[in-house]
Design the sequence.
């Protein structure tokens, strides 16, 4: 398998000491990695570093063998931040418009949506079960439906890497199971997923590997082993 | 068919044209500003423009140029600070707003010779718009319409989710600066012609009315332009027949549209909300009938 994400001696701090100091790992193409750990363990920070939102204080990240600072093919990366809908509760935007935003890139910046792009958006709405909700205002939807809309926005360009920050937060139990099922399907279609989650039990049902953080790596291996380890020793979370 | 009395006079035709251009263009750019929680940027920049005009009068420089320079510098500074403090966009505006007022007061106190009308800048004089003013507003409107037409979707992305727009590789910094520059130009060039009150209000009021009912971003943009045009048409007509201040009449009409839109929307939603279960994920959602 190709190592498509390489993290080398990564360190980051917000000015109050290291969040993590010397993190090294690689992620292979087609993997589904759940990043778990207690609050403040550095899960979201790691994801923001992978998404290029934060810059490392030391070390480096490589996507497809290229350092992130030189990486230009961001259309190959989908990103869903934590609680995106809660941040924009009253924003007047339809589900279809949210998904269409995902098609924008430095190469595709100007002018309205083309017919081909419209078809691409429609196909994505179908894939994520959003066709009937396409014209609805995002703020009117439930937490699970909103998360599916953001997932569809990240997936409309058919990226090969998907970065998810707590995708199941604010979603009820039934919708959570449906969301993880959807993510498994996306992963089976060949998309590499890195997902931050505070719920190891649920994440382990979907993910192949678990990366447990506590200001450094405290477990890195098959998700099922992480769950067993957690049950036996009560660590990680 | 006879031409209505108010259309028979040149100055009224120019007032209508200038007003309608502002009524369409201000909400167009205002939609992006309001949704980025920068509703008061028109006021903030307007007070910086006051300071610019006052400084210009003191230094013997053309007021339009000094206002434009102050506005553009202020807009770029506001944008730079906002990016560092994105969660406090309203506070950043307030800081610049009061600093502009303070600067204007200081420059006014230093200037004993006069040289400009404060009330003219504040309330404008839509009825004294000249042909050259129309050309100026027209050129400004064209630049704004072109900018929005070209970059409508990335600007929408920036207003909705700036972080994800950045992750997608969009030129966030450049687009923000262009929007700030055009906003500054709109305020600086228009306030002399139609008054700060009208420019700042037209950036916000039609958008506020549209936000009550629109279900999508595109609908918000279209409805806010419609509200802007209607406020100018009705406000100016009322002001002509009642001899009220045109700028004030237009702004009050815009405020009335917001109040009506707000009340009607509340009444409509109250009777239409039902609870349903989503067929895909099974979650309970509130849905409107029809």
Sequence:
């Amino acid at each position: 398998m190709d190592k498509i994400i390489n993290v080398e001696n990564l360190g980051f701090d917000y000015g109050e000491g290291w969040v993590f100091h010397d993190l090294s790992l690689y992620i292979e193409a087609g993997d589904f990695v759940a990043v778990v750990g207690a609050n403040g363990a550095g899960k979201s920070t790691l994801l923001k570093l992978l998404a290029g939102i934060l810059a490392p204080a030391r070390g480096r990240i490589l996507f497809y063998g290229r350092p992130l600072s030189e990486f230009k093919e961001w259309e190959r990366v989908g990103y869903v931040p934590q609680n995106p809908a809660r941040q924009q509760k009253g924003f007047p935007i339809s589900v279809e418009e949210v998904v269409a935003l995902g098609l924008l890139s430095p190469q595709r910046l100007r002018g309205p949506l083309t017919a081909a792009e419209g078809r691409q958006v429609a196909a994505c709405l179908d894939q994520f079960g959003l066709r009937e909700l396409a014209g609805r205002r995002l703020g009117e939807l439930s937490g699970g439906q909103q998360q599916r809309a953001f997932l569809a926005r990240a997936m409309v360009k058919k990226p090969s890497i998907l970065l998810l920050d707590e995708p199941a937060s604010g979603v009820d139990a039934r919708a959570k199971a449906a969301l993880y099922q959807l993510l498994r399907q996306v992963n089976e279609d060949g998309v590499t997923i890195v997902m931050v989650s505070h719920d190891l039990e649920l994440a382990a049902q979907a993910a192949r590997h678990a990366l447990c953080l506590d200001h450094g790596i405290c477990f890195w291996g098959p998700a099922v082993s992480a769950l067993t380890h957690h049950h036996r020793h009560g660590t990680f979370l | 068919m006879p031409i209505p009395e108010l259309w028979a006079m040149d100055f009224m035709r120019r007032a209508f044209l200038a007003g309608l251009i502002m009524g369409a263009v201000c909400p167009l750019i205002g939609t992006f500003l309001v949704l980025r929680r920068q509703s008061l940027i028109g006021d903030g920049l307007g007070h910086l423009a006051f300071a610019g005009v006052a400084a210009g009068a003191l230094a013997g420089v053309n007021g339009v140029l000094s206002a434009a320079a102050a506005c553009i510098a202020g807009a770029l500074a506001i944008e730079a600070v906002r990016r560092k403090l994105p969660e406090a966009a309203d506070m950043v505006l307030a800081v610049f707003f009061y600093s502009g007022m303070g600067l204007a007061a200081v420059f006014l106190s230093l200037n004993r010779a006069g040289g400009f009308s404060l009330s003219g800048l504040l309330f404008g004089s839509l009825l004294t718009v000249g042909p050259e003013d129309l050309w100026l507003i027209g050129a400004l409107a064209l630049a704004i319409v072109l900018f929005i037409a070209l970059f409508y979707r990335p600007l929408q992305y920036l207003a909705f989710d700036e972080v994800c727009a950045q992750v997608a590789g969009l030129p966030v910094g450049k687009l923000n600066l262009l929007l700030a520059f055009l906003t500054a130009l709109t305020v600086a060039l228009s306030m002399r012609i139609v008054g700060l009150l009208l420019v700042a209000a037209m950036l916000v009021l039609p958008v506020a009315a549209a936000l009550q009912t629109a279900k999508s971003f595109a609908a918000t943009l279209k409805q806010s332009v419609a509200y802007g045009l209607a406020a100018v048409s009705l406000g100016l007509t009322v002001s002509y027949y009642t001899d009220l201040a045109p700028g004030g009449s237009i702004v009050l009409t815009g405020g009335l549209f917001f109040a009506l839109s707000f009340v009607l929307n509340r009444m409509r939603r109250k009777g239409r909300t039902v609870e349903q279960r989503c067929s895909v994920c099974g979650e309970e959602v509130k849905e409107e009938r029809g």
Notes: Chain A has a mean pLDDT of 88. The first helix of chain A runs from residue 43 to 50. Chain A touches chain B through 50 residues (CB under 8 Å). The domain at 3-233 of chain A is CATH 3.40.50.300 (Rossmann fold).
